[in-house]
Amino acid sequence: MEAVGLVPVLAVSAVLFVTGVAGVLTRKNALIVFMSIELMLNAVNLSFVAFARQSGQADGMIYAVFVMAVAAAEAAVGLALVILLFRNRVTVKLDDLDLMKG
Amino acid sequence: MFEAVLFYLFSLVAIVSGVGVVTMRNPIASALSLVVCFFFLAADYVLLDAHFVAVIQILVYAGAIMVLFVFVIMLLNLRHGDHLSFEDIGRRSVVGMGTAGLLAIGLFTALGQLPEILPAAIPADYGTIAYIGRALFEGPYLLPFEAVSALLTVAVVGAVVLAKKEI
Question: Is residue A39 one of the residues assigned to a domain?
């Protein structure tokens, strides 16, 4: 940390987050959209840990652990939804799921 | 100096595999690319003195969550069908990439204005399980911790109820 400083770590985090946003907005496969969301959560985790090291406090690391717990819960429920979706519609393409479009 | 080289190397691999997650055509390849990204992010956490978070990253993310992803992809047998959406550059791809580009411009403008502050001095046991555990259970995070355990229980019950054929 003393070697690189805060800004390069945050830059890496920003690049990963933007990659995740691009994945969520452009891909059509629901599973890959999920993975892009996990990528965004990890980018945020990286900046939490970097800020924790910067301030010398434990709070950032604790937030990172909480984010991981919430991500695990989200993955369990989300993948159950994908399985349910595939069972009913035999697709995971988000374009085909416009039932509530109105 | 050596640590800086390691940090840039690990971060480069993490970013390349992160881009791979978004651009790969095969969902299994995407998932494995994401596992590589998680491993190298864990290496970055070690360089940031967050050893416990690094171990949890590998155990929970690369271990549990990604196994769940790979399991579901193989269960649904999604090897074919999904076309890379960058190929047919439709309105959605242009709008998505444009939004991501705008976000990148905003983030990097904010980063450029960040003042360079030296990191604070840290105790010798910073980042260990004992240090995190004390901060977690003696500080104001005890109630959120219990709330997370309730959240995980609810999520497990919800996942079982959703994926079950007949309740």
Answer: yes
What number of other Cβ atoms are within 10 A of residue B44's Cβ? Answer: 24
Residue of chain B nearest A33, judged by CA positions = B22
Mapping DSSP onto H, E and C, the string for chain B reads CHHHHHHHHHHHHHHHHHHHHHHCCCHHHHHHHHHHHHHHHHHHHHHCCCHHHHHHHHHHHHHHHHHHHHHHHHHHCCCCCCCCCCCCCCHHHHHHHHHHHHHHHHHHHHHHCCCCCCCCCCCCCCCCHHHHHHHHHHCCCHHHHHHHHHHHHHHHHHHHHHHCCCC
Amino acid at A100: M
User: Domains in chain B, start-ordered, CATH in brackets?
Assistant: 1-83 (1.20.120.1200)
Give the tens place of pLDDT for each residue, B123-164. Answer: 888 888 999 999 999 889 999 999 999 999 999 999 999 888
Convert the pLDDT of each residue in B17-39 to its tens digit: 999 999 988 889 999 999 999 99
Return the residue in A7, A18, A55 with the most chain B beta carbons within 10 A, the one to mutate for interface testing: A18
